[in-house]
């Protein structure tokens, strides 16, 4: 895990396509592994019950609402590390990393405590059908409380990954995530089912071992709470590995213990860049809570199909997401190096590649929607069959937006890499609050299309946002770095020298 990072000159000089690919593919792999956490939960909980799948469908928008507060500030850390790295200011990049890690750790502790204390209150704001309220909501609460207690472990890896990405090293986070996912996949079914009726032992033909372990431990599993606990423990290992890499190797920014001492001029810059991103992510979470509040008025099968469909679409979005985050780094480093024209070329190249790749993904998703959805629902009941049919319809309709998502993610990455997070915020709000939310409401409830109206509205909002963001990008008003703001760069550099 101590490989030398992708060197800054590979991003700011010479060919663009090769370093962009070298930067993007580990991001895509890391995000694929990230989704593997969620899919592992869905796969095993789908063997438990449809209600368990619906429970995590309710839980995630509420969890995302709180973690988005700290998650937005990782954008600031990544952007500033990228621009200082491009400007060849290694000491300032290290200070950025230390300040960001300390700042977000404090936020994680506070947010985790609030989430734990107000889980029931948050679930109470969701209007639910009687069946959902009685069968699903209590399970969602069990999942959320465990998750919130472990939130600092999850935030730790998010920060590590963002800082390394800004530096240009995307392989180390990928390898750490791989270790964490392997651990999660191994312990997830054990924590959910225990050693009695565990499908993992059935698949591996180890029934006698399962019986022996149950006889010794008497452990019958924790259900949805077990899924949350497995995620928290495996993420804790990822955080520990990430901290070791930052402090014990030369693979990332040069972080020293003194960098954790508050540097208020720089904290102001983190806040200035990070607040719009935090608002963006929080507004996105609120939007999904609003959408979920509409969805939960339908029967549990629709709720489960909606949650499963969202997880699958998050999986197919990974190529676009990887290119968008790679664009963030490339734009940041080139603006830091004083090369705005190269940054512009990188964005246009990434947008073309993203749109093309996502169109291919859309074709595959449309043609194979039902067998893909069916993998994750396997209880063999009429409810499960209904969930599969609904989920397949959702995935096919969402496929029409995939090409637009390739463009949107790249352009938003460009705005964030430039530190222009207010512009990224504006277009994210446009796609969600002027697109998805009202269109879903009108089609599902006013036009009477029901769940099909939900599926169509989810796709339409993103298409609107992509077209608008790309049109604004052509104005070229985003091509300025933020690290040359008066006073900030000098104060940070001086703070390292004093030590």
What does this structure look like?
By secondary structure, this protein is mainly alpha-helical. Helix content is 81%, strand content 0%. It has 22 helices and no strands. The longest helix is centred in the N-terminal third of the chain and has 37 residues, at 50-86. The protein is globular and about 60 Å long.
Sum this structure up briefly.
This protein is an all-alpha fold. The protein is built from 22 helices and no strands.
Uncertain spans: 1-9, 485-499
Number of strands: 0
Quaternary state of the chains = single chain
**Largest sheet report:** none
Shape: globular
String of helices and strands = HHHHHHHHHHHHHHHHHHHHHH
The overall pLDDT, averaged over residues, is 84
Structural class: mainly alpha
The total count of helices amounts to: 22
Fraction of helical residues? over 70%
Radius of gyration: 22 Å
Strand content: under 5%
Distance between the termini: 29 Å
Topology of helices and strands:
Layout: H1 8-12, H2 17-48, H3 50-86, H4 90-117, H5 119-124, H6 130-135, H7 137-149, H8 151-167, H9 171-193, H10 199-203, H11 207-217, H12 224-248, H13 264-295, H14 300-316, H15 318-336, H16 340-367, H17 369-374, H18 382-398, H19 402-417, H20 421-446, H21 451-473, H22 488-498
């Amino acid at each position: 895990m101590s490989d030398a990072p992708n060197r800054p000159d590979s991003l700011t000089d010479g060919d663009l396509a090769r370093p962009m690919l070298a930067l993007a593919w580990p991001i895509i792999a890391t995000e694929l592994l990230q989704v593997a956490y969620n899919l592992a939960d869905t796969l095993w909980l789908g063997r438990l019950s449809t209600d368990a799948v619906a429970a995590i469908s309710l839980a995630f928008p509420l969890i995302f609402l709180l973690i988005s507060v700290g998650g937005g500030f990782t954008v600031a850390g990544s952007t500033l590390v990228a621009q200082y790295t491009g400007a060849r200011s290694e000491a300032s990049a290290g200070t950025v990393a230390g300040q960001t890690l300390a700042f977000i750790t404090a936020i994680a502790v506070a947010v985790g405590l609030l989430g734990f204390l107000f889980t029931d209150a948050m679930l109470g704001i969701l209007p639910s059908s009687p069946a959902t309220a009685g069968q699903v909501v209590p399970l969602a609460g069990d999942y959320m409380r465990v998750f919130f207690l472990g939130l600092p472990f999850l935030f730790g890896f998010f920060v590590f990954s963002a800082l390394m990405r800004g530096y240009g090293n995307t392989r180390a986070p990928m390898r750490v995530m791989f270790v964490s996912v392997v651990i999660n996949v191994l312990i997830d079914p054990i924590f959910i089912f225990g050693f009695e009726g565990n499908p993992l032992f059935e698949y591996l033909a180890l029934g006698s071992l399962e019986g022996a372990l149950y006889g010794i431990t008497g452990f019958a599993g924790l259900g949805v709470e077990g899924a949350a606990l497995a995620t928290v423990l495996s993420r804790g290992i990822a955080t520990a590995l990430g901290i070791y890499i930052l402090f014990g190797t030369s693979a990332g920014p040069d972080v020293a213990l003194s960098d954790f001492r508050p540097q208020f001029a720089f904290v102001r810059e983190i806040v200035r860049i990070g607040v719009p991103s935090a608002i963006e992510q929080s507004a996105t979470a609120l939007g999904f809570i609003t959408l979920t509040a509409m969805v939960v008025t339908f029967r549990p099968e629709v709720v489960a199909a909606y949650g499963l469909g969202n997880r699958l679409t998050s999986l197919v979005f990974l190529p676009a997401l990887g290119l968008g985050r790679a664009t963030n780094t490339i734009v940041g480093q080139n603006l830091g190096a004083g090369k705005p024209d190269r940054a512009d070329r990188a964005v246009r190249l990434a947008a073309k590649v993203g749109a093309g790749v996502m169109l291919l993904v859309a074709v595959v998703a449309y043609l194979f929607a039902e067998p893909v959805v069916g993998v994750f629902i396997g209880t063999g009941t009429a409810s499960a069959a209904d969930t599969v049919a609904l989920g397949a319809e959702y995935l096919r309709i969402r496929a029409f937006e995939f090409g637009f998502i390739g463009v949107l993610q790249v352009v938003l990455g460009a705005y964030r890499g430039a530190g222009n997070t207010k512009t990224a915020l504006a277009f994210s709000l446009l796609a969600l609050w002027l697109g998805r939310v009202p269109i879903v409401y009108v089609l599902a409830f006013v036009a009477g299309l029901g769940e099909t109206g939900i599926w169509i509205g989810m796709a339409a909002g993103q298409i609107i946002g992509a077209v608008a963001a790309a049109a604004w990008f052509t104005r070229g008003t985003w091509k300025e770095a933020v690290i040359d703001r008066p006073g900030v760069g000098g104060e940070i550099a001086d703070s390292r020298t004093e030590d």
